[in-house]
What we know:
seven-stranded mixed sheet
Amino acid sequence: xxxxxxxxxxxxxxxxxxxxxxxxxxxxxxxxxxxxxxxxxxxxxxxxxxxxxxxxxxxxxxxxxxxxxxxxxxxxxxxxxxxxxxxxxxxxxxxxxxxxxxxxxxxxxxxxxxxxxxxxxxxxxxxxxxxxxxxxxxxxxxxxxxxxxxxxxxxxxxxxxxxxxxxxxxxxxxxxxxxxxxxxxxxxxxxxxxxxxxxxxxxxxxxxxxxxxxxxxxxxxxxxxxxxxxxxxxxxxxxxxxxxxxxxxxxxxxx
Length: 255
């Protein structure tokens, strides 16, 4: 299964009990709203596929893992309703990952910003390279990482979330992310990561489906309220996107 557009791509590949979702975009593998909708839908479909036990989430190329949401779309928001809809994109993906019955493994080959950090946080196990630095830059453009906060805090705690959020211009390296619990394993090179990822996913896929699903449910216990929580956070973020200062910062950033 695959879909592609000039401004982004999404491919789903099933290989027995292991499936992979690969997304891409010319702007640092960032997401336009339509791509987020496709990603959430792909995760839901794989969740209901009885043959699949493991999902690998990856992005194209050997550069950035994910540049977050589209700044172009963010700059075009004109009403609170449009703002809520925009920020609901990542909220819907994170909730799809949360309720997914399969173990999701993140393959993080490069830098991740904003919503990209949220995606990583919602993975159940994460392989990364030394190049995979992370940053939450939202405050620098007068918004805040409110939608992804539940996922990020769940992984690295309130202190880790605060450290990332309150230093929006600073990158944290892959070993910081591993020590905080965002990454599980860090490799020097992509080739080493991929070799171990192939071995690990194959091993994991040989385990009992029901046992894996039970583990998944335990990992995500006490998160059932996220649907309502993230809807409220999307509305809050949408209002921030309308602030004159936000518009001014975005205009300057985009040239």
